[in-house]
Give the backbone structure.
Amino acid sequence: MFLSIRLTFLLTFPLLFACKAPKPVAQHTTLVPYGPAFAALWQQRSAEYKALCFQAYNIARFRLNEDLKSSFPKPMAIVTDIDETILDNSPYNVHVALKGENYSDKTWQEWTSKAAADTVPGALSFLKYAAEKGVHVYYITNRSEAERGVTLQNLQRWNFPDADNEHLILKTTTSSKEERRLHVAQTHEIILLMGDNMGDFSAIFEKQPADKREAATKQSAAEFGSRFIVLPNPMYGDWLPALFQYNYKQNIDSILQTQLRNY
Ligand SMILES: [Mg+2]
């Protein structure tokens, strides 16, 4: 029973590659109908998802309090991703999954134009707390420049601190966030990086196959819960295309089946 549930869950991990994935996937999994909605269901309805988010932000607060005892030559800043780190886009993923579609820039921007995403549990109160302590917040996201206005609108709707043009750094030429992080680091001491995708933390994870990502994660083990604060995202992320070398033209179903560990 447990194995069956576990396998079903793995097989239904969505082929949505949503939210600024390099390319949409050519086909849906045929393994389980409506499978892609399953991960969104976990994000929306499980107590465990919320508990993990609270855990992440409780640790972030603990780390921040420690850093506040130190003095740095530059003003302190937190660099945070937006999607699935502080804003919850699961309604978008449900919408396309139930229509049998995959991620597309068109449907994604229809969603973001609503500026209707709710907050990730714990994110808002943590960032407000940080701002009260004088820490600057920079939002580094792979949303596009065309989404600047609606993104600010969504952040301002919830009163996120520093939700202005200066602190919102969108994708321009590359999905890599390294250059943008370095830009912030020129003027600020980055005390925390927050994200749901390994590329939110360091360039060492970018465009790497799954085994190299895993090795880099082990190498960075001490950073998690220290300078890196990781949020759960079962719906999409580089972890999935990393399993097939980011080559979206392959038969994704059969490749994913070879990745499953059975006994
Ligand atoms: Mg994200």
